[in-house]
Each structure stands twice: as structure tokens, then as C-alpha cells.
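BUG: 3D viewer hangs when loading the predicted structure for this chain

Environment: internal workstation, default settings.
Expected: structure renders.
Actual: progress bar stalls at 90%.

Input used:
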Amino acid sequence: MDSAEQDLLKPEFVPEGEDAVATAVDALTEEEQEFLRKELEKVEEEIETLNQVLAAKERHLAEIKRKLGVTTLTELKQNISKGLQDVAATNMYRKTSETLSNAGQKASAAISTVGSVITKKLVDVKNSPTYKSFEEKVENLKSKVSGSKQPAGDFGEVLTSAANASATEDLSEKDLETQ
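C-alpha cells produced before the viewer hung:
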């Protein structure tokens, strides 16, 4: 093969587009066209041979996998596992993971701080003179209603007792007035 024939096989020699192809065919000599036709046949035969070899290799591969007990599901699991490992090894994954971890830590710290503040405020309210005064008034009302001072129950019980006592007290006063 001389240098002119080798030039014909270079990719940059072939112009693009339909008009360019028609012009290129006209520009080729009969000898060059014959050389390219033979080269085309040769390349097509090589491609067919490679396709046959590839098919044979794929059959051989399938047979080996069958003998080893490797199934499609096993391969899929391995591919997914490898893919996840590859993703985990990337810088973007590490940076994202670190960012999410930091954000989680900051959110946790913020929630903890808010919880502490609320707890402190509730303790402050419970220890405040206003709350203590209200609590004493409820205790006094309870002792008036029940007639004797009993150990204090929870706040809900005290309010319920006071409400019941008020209803009873109202009825007693009305009964006394009508008599």
C-alpha cells in the first residue's frame, strides 16, 4: 500500500455531507475507488469475525458463571455494592456527608438549647411569686370547700374540686335565701 492509498484511509480525508461525498467520489480515480471497495469488504469481514468471536466469548462466560452458580441477581447485587462503594469514595459524597453531619449536630444542639431554655422558663414561672400566690389561693379555696386542709393533690384535682365546690356553694346560698 503506497502513501496515496494510506491517505485515502485517514478519517480527515473523507469530507462530510451528501454534497461532499458526491464530490469526493468524483475526485477519486477508478483505482482509488477499487482500493476503497476492497478495504470496505475487508473491514466488514473483520467486524463480522469479531462479532462471532465476541458471541463465542459471551457464551463461554455464561457457561463459567453457570458452573460457579453466579446468577443475574448476584451480579446485580455486586454491581450495586460496587457502585455504592464508588459513590462513597467520591469527594462530592464525602463533602455532602460531612455537611449533613454538621447540620445534624447543629440542629441537635439548637433543639437541646431550646429545650433547656423552656425548662428553665417553666421552673422560673413555678418559682415566681405570682404562681405561688395563685397556688396558695387555690389551696385556700380547696380547704374552704372540703372543710379541712388535705394534702395538696395535683393542680388538675385542685381545680376540679374548686369548681365542684363553687357549684355546691351557689346552691347552698340560694337555698338559704329562699327559706
